[in-house]
Amino acid sequence: MKKLSWIFSITAVCALLSCVTINIYFPAEEVRNAADRIVNEVWGERNGQPAEPPSETRPAPDVGSWLRLLGPTTVYAAQDINVSTPEIRAIKEAMKQRKAALQPLLQGGQVGLNADGLLAIRDLAGLDLRSRGQAKRLVGEENSDRLRLYQEIARANDFPDKAAEVQAIFAESWRQQARRGWYLQDASGVWQRK
């Protein structure tokens, strides 16, 4: 009986020491880094400055007391964001091709970035009928590609239900990397020049 109690105690200690909790989370920081790279790739260098390479941030190891080492450990699964599927590459290429036609509209204030990071027609005054139609078409195509990009990134990285979160992260990046003089719309619908 004493031997069985001793074996049970050793087994319980081993089980306690081997407890590991793995948390799978939405990789917001990794998506943010990918968003910054993609926006910079599509729009080119930001304000004439070369792009900064994304910094690798790793959490500092938790060096606690030796007693904490005996308890369960939490491990976070890092996720490398996949942004190089054929679909994503095709969407990025289409957006790059459209950039030259969109930038004069953004700089002139006819088109701006709304709070969701999508393009919006702001004011078409001063444009002829043909240019108005072209501006509307360009904005529609760009917004369609942006939404497809967010969905594809979410799908390619096995969190298809998180496309809205991907969009929110990209919206922040589009707005931060917007050039001086472009119009940005705040959450209340007010347009302001950057």
UniProtKB/TrEMBL annotation:
This is DUF1318 domain-containing protein. It comes from Syntrophotalea acetylenivorans.
